[in-house]
Design a protein that fits this description.
With 184 residues, the chain is α+β, with helices and mostly antiparallel strands. It has one domain (3-176): Cyclic Phosphodiesterase, Chain: A. It has helices at 12-19, 48-58, 93-108, 132-141; strands at residues 3-8, 28-30, 38-45, 66-76, 84-89, 121-127, 146-152, 154-163, 166-176. The protein is globular, with a radius of gyration of 16 Å. The N and C termini lie far apart (39 Å). 27% of the residues are buried.
């Protein structure tokens, strides 16, 4: 039973810039740069029939390419001990529209709607054995981090397999958005 998520793809230049700040917290499990993505919808475990329906259905989604702004550093949960370190994606009209189209398509394919508030972000690290003050210092040091013009020209369906070394993501479907954009 595959564990699935839908994510906007990031260009290599953005991944490289994010990788430049992915260090400095002892005990943090840093996400490999090739796995950076902007999650649109986490679906969790889906059976093989739903998986095929979702993979094929996403191919019918039509949306324009857009620019995303990545800025600042934060963590989940928003209160309490940090578990996930991320950079935020600004909620542009185009990003929200793509997310809503994905959500509507998935609901039409029988996937239960996500009731959580959409908080667009790119995960940088998982925090397991780090001290809170180390994470706080990192957030302060990188508070002004930003990538203002990241072209988003596709999204993908990924499966995710959890291992003791971290998640392994496999691209299961690739979906281009309409219109080509230049790097910012």
């Amino acid at each position: 039973m595959p564990r699935l998520f839908v994510a906007a793809d990031l260009p290599d230049e953005a991944r490289e810039k994010l990788a430049e700040i992915a260090y400095g917290i002892p005990g943090a499990d840093w996400v490999p740069s090739e796995q950076y993505h902007l999650t649109l919808r986490f679906l969790g475990d889906q059976d093989e029939s739903a998986f095929e329906t979702i993979r094929e259905g996403l191919g019918s989604l039509v949306a324009p390419s857009f620019y995303a702004a990545l800025r600042g550093i934060g963590h989940f949960p928003l209160r309490g001990d940090p578990e996930v370190l991320w950079t935020e994606a600004a909620k542009s009209e185009e990003l929200i529209s793509l997310r809503n189209k994905v959500e509507s398509l998935l609901a039409a394919k029988g996937v239960e709607r996500d009731t959580r508030k959409f908080h667009p972000h790119v995960t940088l690290a998982r925090i397991r054995e780090s001290r809170g003050e180390w994470v706080a210092n990192y957030i302060v040091q990188h508070a002004l981090f930003s990538l203002p013009e990241v072209p988003v020209q596709s999204f993908s369906l990924f499966s995710s397999r959890l291992t003791p070394e971290g998640a392994i993501h496999t691209r299961e479907g690739f979906y281009p958005l309409q219109g080509l954009l230049q790097a910012g």
